[in-house]
Amino acid sequence: MTEKVYARNVEALKSGTVIDHIPAGQGLRILRLFQLAEYRERVTVGLNLPSGHMGSKDLIKIENVVLSEEQANELALFAPRGTVSVIEDFAVVRKQKLAIPDTVEGIFACPNSNCVSHVEPVQSHFSVRVTEHDTKMKCKYCEKVFSKDIVVDVR
Ligand SMILES: [Zn+2]
C-alpha cells in the first residue's frame, strides 16, 4: 500500500509537461541541452522504459513548465516521433506539435573543430533542410553542411 502511494507521488503530474517517446539515450541530453533542471521545478526522468513500437524509450516530466514552440521544434531534432503533452489538473489539455525548425541557435556545437564559432563569442547557428533521406544542418559561420545526426551527436 505505501509503495503504491509513493509511486503515485512520483509519477502523477498535476500541471506541467510530459515529453514522451524520446529515443532511449537522448533523455539526459535533452535535459542538459534544454537546461530543464534550471527551472528549479520538479523533474522526473524515466530512462530505458519499455515501449511497444520503439523497443525502449526515455521520458521526461517537468512540473509547472510549458515548452515554447521553439523548444518543441528543437526537440524534434532529437525525438522526431516524440510527443509533448501539456498537463493541467492531472489531465492532458493539449499536445504540442513537433516540427523540425528552419534554424537552430545556441544548442549544438559545430562539428567542424576549425569553425570560428568555437573561438568567437557567438551562439552556434544552423539552418536546417529536410531532404528525402536525411536532415541537413548548415553552419552559418563555416558554411559547412552536416547530417543532422552528426550535429546532434556532438557533445
Ligand atoms: Zn561551423
Structure explained in plain terms:
- It is built from four helices and nine strands, in the order H-E-H-E-E-H-E-E-E-E-E-E-H.
- The chain has 155 residues and is α+β, with helices and mostly antiparallel strands.
- The chain folds into two domains: 82 residues, 2-Layer Sandwich (Alpha-Beta Plaits); 50 residues, Roll (SH3 type barrels).
- The strands form two sheets. A five-stranded antiparallel β-sheet has the order 2-3-1-4-5, covered by helices on one side.
- The mean pLDDT is 88.
- The site of zinc ion (ZN) has 8 residues, from loops.
- Zinc ion (ZN) binds next to loops.
Number of helices: 4
Q: Per the principal axes of the C-alpha atoms, what is the gross shape?
A: globular
Order of helices and strands: HEHEEHEEEEEEH
The overall average pLDDT, rounded, is 88
Q: Provide the low-confidence segments as ranges.
A: none
Alpha-beta classification: alpha+beta
**Mind telling me which CATH architecture of the largest domain this is?**
2-Layer Sandwich
Determine the fraction of residues in helical runs and give it as a percent range. Answer: 10-25%
CATH domain topology of the largest domain: Alpha-Beta Plaits
Q: What's the N-to-C terminus distance?
A: 43 Å
Q: What's the total count of β strands?
A: 9
Bound ligands, each once: zinc ion
Rg from alpha-carbon coordinates: 17 Å
